[in-house]
Amino acid sequence: CSECKEWNTITEVRLGVSSPGGPARFTGYAGAAGSRVQTLAEIATTEIPRFTSGFKELDRVLGGGVVPGSAILIGGNPGAGKSTLLLQTMCGLAERMKTLYVTGEESLQQVAMRASRLGLPTDKLRMLSETSVEQ
Known about the structure:
Order of helices and strands: HHEHE
Strand order of the largest sheet: 1-2
Distance between the termini: 14 Å
Mean pLDDT: 85
C-alpha cells in the first residue's frame, strides 16, 4: 500500500458510477458505453472521427488516424525507435493541439537532447517526468 507502506493490505472496492443529469454521452475506453454482452453483429458501427498523427504510415496502421480517447501501445525491441517515433509524433501534434508527453523511463534532459538532435520544434510540447502511478 502506498499509504501505509504495508504488504497485503489492499482490498478491491467496487464503486457505482453515476453521472449527474443522466448517463454520459461517452463513457469508458475510447467512448465505449454500456456493459451488457453483445455479439459483434449486434454492435452498431459508425465512423469515428480521427485525427492525423502526422505520419502517413502510422495513420495507415491505425486505420486512418488516431481515435480521440484511445490508448495506443507501440512495442518493439530496445533501440528500435519507439521513443523517437513518439517524440516526433508528439512534437507534430503539439503544433495543432495541447499535448503532454509524460515519461517514466527517460529524464526530461534525455528527451530534450533527442528533440534537439532531430531538429524538432520544442516550444509547444509540454513535458513531465513521473514514475509514481498515483500521481
